[in-house]
Amino acid sequence: MVVACSATRNATDKGGEDSSTSQTKTTNPSIPQLGLSDDEWDSGRDMTSDGADTNANTEPTRQLSSEASSIVIYFSRSGSTQLLAQEIAETTSADLLELTVDETYPSDYTETVSRANEERESGDYPAITIDVPDLGQYDTVYLGYPIWGMSLASPMASFLESYGSQLTGKTIAPFASNGGYGLGGSVEQIKGYLLDSKVVNGLSVQGNNVDQAQTDIENWLSDNNLTK
Does 21 map to a domain? Predict the structure, then answer.
């Protein structure tokens, strides 16, 4: 069962280390696409977001520990990728970190894709606004994102441009929510950023089915020999 987690931003002590934070587990957030048929879903074209990249009512998720050997790093606009990220983190006992950017995306999906296309063509990606911790402790990094225009969502591209050097030598496991067209070229894009990392096969789930993805997640973890 998918369980949604909301977390307050961790306090940072004088040494710059992230302290642990208490977590609140709640029921699934309000994600209008869940349960829609594929025809009703229509590749997400009419789905709106909260206009705050899923953080209108909560702080960005930040669950860090000193013991975990894996971390799920994700960006979510409408909540679908967030639900996948939470389930993967729970299944693998991984830390969890949500990316945010300096200018949130429009609630209208078509407008978001239009902006994303402009960002991709210009290479002018939005700045990441969270404090990214030292990723040295992690052997496996799960990267989650929506597919926009058959490509990697701009915030994840921005993260890889800024922090990809911290992922050298690690196992990278991509996963994505999509509108019915799979992973697009996103995995190849990630490989292009991370030439010295091991990038395994990606997991892709339609945005209207992310609350039914547990078996797909378990099979993906097993097929890629990822820690469970």
Answer: no
Q: Kindly tell me if the per-residue pLDDT of 26 is higher than 60.
A: no
Q: What's the CA gap between 44 and 154, in Å, rounded?
A: 18
Nearest to 43 by CA among 78, 6, 86, 87: 78
**What does the DSSP assignment read for 139-182?**
SEEEEEEEEETTEE-HHHHHHHHHHGGGGTTSEEEEEEEESSST
Q: Which residue has the higher pLDDT, 34 or 186?
A: 186
Q: What is the CATH classification number for the domain harbouring 202? A: 3.40.50.360
Instruction: Name the residue among 125, 131, 61 with its Cα closest to residue 96.
Output: 61
Task: Specify the pairing of strand 70-74 against strand 140-148.
Answer: parallel
Output the CA–CA distances (angstroms, integers) from residue 165 to 98, 128, 161, 168, in the order listed: 19, 15, 8, 6
Residues of the domain holding 194: 48-224
How many Å from the N-terminal Cα to the C-terminal Cα in the chain? 16
The mean pLDDT of 183-199, rounded to a whole number, is: 95
Summarised one tens digit per residue, pLDDT across range 173-189 is 999 988 777 898 999 99
**DSSP reduced 3-state for 124:** coil
